[in-house]
Amino acid sequence: MSKNIRFFLVFIFGFSVYYFFDLFCFKNIQTASKAFFHSKALAHVIAYSITLLPIILTVKILLPRKRIFDLLSLNAPLKKGFVLAFLGTLPMVAGYLVHFNLISKIDVESLFINTVSSAFFEEIIFRSFLIGILYRFTSLGFLSSVFFGSLLFAQVHLYQSQDTTELFEIFSITFIGSVFFAWVYIETEYNLWTAIFVHFFMNLYWEIFNVSQNVSGNLYGNIYKVLSLLVIIILVIYYKKRNKSPFQIIYKNLFIKSRED
């Protein structure tokens, strides 16, 4: 069996174990943890941390000589990721201050779950593992690596509505969002913190302002979100040109990386 085939088989098996472990055990772990610690925020973190174990084991089997923090891209500069994400999402907070009111009451634990916990763990699962490991350590190009992970990322957000039109909007927006987060992660030299903080700030502003009940949003909500995406893209391009850093994602490696890559 070739190394490439073995790599993909282990990757698929490891993700499958994670997927079904998460599907059947996440809620039970969360419920038990909440009953013991009396905190739904802590229970959310515990459930994510435990169900993440198959992913950690999988990357260690695939690449045993590398450290977990390196494999999950958590060894990158946190400060750089924070600054880029904060500056890039300023259009959202500025626009929302003008067009929307702050919510009247904040549930701190729910806010933590929907911003800090979700952003951190979702970026590890989808961008770092499901997309990043494939793109970094196989011959798959950007679009080939990002497609399945983005489909799954979009699918897990469909709980937000029962309306067919809204479901289509939610799926499309979250799929595009996943591709964007992956692009940011890769083009900032595999700095997962950038994607985590962009995810965090976008969720935060969406949560603390009366924008929409789900991610499909509305005219002004989406206008300022798109403006933030454009600003982030400009900042990433500026950073790379200033540091004379080549772009990772080019037309040559959209599907399969060329040998010189």
From TrEMBL:
UniProtKB keywords: Membrane, Transmembrane, Transmembrane helix
CAAX prenyl protease 2/Lysostaphin resistance protein A-like domain residues: 111-204
Domain of life from the UniProt record: Bacteria
Matching Pfam families: Rce1-like
Keyword Protease among record annotations: no
A GO BP entry: CAAX-box protein maturation
GO molecular function, one term: endopeptidase activity
Keyword Hydrolase found: no
Annotated TM spans: 7-29, 41-63, 83-104, 124-154, 166-186, 192-211, 223-239
Annotated protein name in UniProt: CAAX prenyl protease 2/Lysostaphin resistance protein A-like domain-containing protein
Organism taxonomic ancestry: Bacteria, Pseudomonadati, Bacteroidota, Flavobacteriia, Flavobacteriales
